[in-house]
Amino acid sequence: MANKKEKKNKYFFENKREIELPTLIDMVFLLLIFFISTLSLSSSGDQDLPTPSRKSFTLPRARGETSVLTDEILSTLLIQVTHVNDNPASPKVVYILQPDEQNKLTEVQALKKVKEEISRSSPDSSHYGIVPENAFEMPGAVRDTTHVFSIIRQNIQEYTEEHLHTPSISNTIEVRAAQDTEFGIINYIMEQCSQYGNLIPKITFRVLSSEKESLVNQEEEESQGGV
Amino acid sequence: MAFNKYDMGRKKPQMLSLIDMAFILLLFFLVTSMVAQMTREEQKLAVPTPENKPGRAQILVQFVDENGFLFLDKSATAIVGQVQNNFGYKSQQWQQQRIVSRLMDDRYFTKTQLLARLKELKMNAANHPEENYFVLIRCPDEIAYYHVIEIIQAVSGLSNINYGCVGGSIEDIQNADDIALVTERDSHGNKRANLVISF
After folding, report:
1. What percent of chain B is predicted at pLDDT more than 70?
2. N or C: which end of chain A has fewer CB within 10 A?
């Protein structure tokens, strides 16, 4: 009896165990999920985004009001401040994008139009200007006469005279500026807008949603879409 | 009763389960790191156009640097009054420097503290809709504008809070022509001491 038990135990503990098939299948599925997720996440960066791409444009993080579509129609004057060639060490450049009369021009198309204008005409375009590196060391009166600040002033004035005839809560001018844009440039834009009083009651800044905001939105979407 | 005693022996760790766990952990950290780096949605943030007309500000927010602020409200008048009373025999320039030094000691806030104070201000403004508030934000031109956006966002949203933005540094206040208390009557006819800084 004891010998039988010993043999049984010996068999139980010393016999070689074979590889279990369900575990192998688990591993195959895990590898499959791994490669699918890495493939899908790496390909999401290849979407056709406006230049500079929304991914690389370092906008401030704040809680915004409305989302911006990838290929949004330009509905108002947009002042875009970015680095030359998206290089953070390079000087800043200002693009001033105006909507067309039919309101069918997208941001990408408007930016392309300005760049074509630059390549055709001299760098003294009325919709493009490079911020001088010593702009904030100059006296304010001298700085206001530089090309870039002059075109900001002129374009805001022209746009207001042509399109903003009556005070309305929807009248606005948009600013899309890299996060490290100096306050002096933005303050100049705000000063110019404030001269028109109720004709430009608000200024719209492009921001990136903060982490908390994106998580809250995700939770809201899940709770609305969930069973 | 004689129970069978199994000699359980030492159980060897299940290697395949361990490999499963390793892959699950790898997948978990990979996905979370990818999600953390994903592009956030671009949004529009509308702020009221600042009022940059000359006038009086009830609250002054002066950027000392990117994360330090001088916050002057009506309670700052007490500090100015104290210096003027205690050191009235000293020269105007000495008193002015003393005032600025005391204000920097007492009214210097970090961003977190400032945002908390502005939140209190908004609550007061919401509870007293008949009162109008004006916040003047002074910021050096070189500072990145997104710092100012955070402050503007903190004060905007109520119709009885207006704000203004001007360029200027703390040195302008330190070298101001005059910092004085002026007693005036407010809209209700009550006397109040106002801090006037002349640049």
Report:
1. 84
2. C
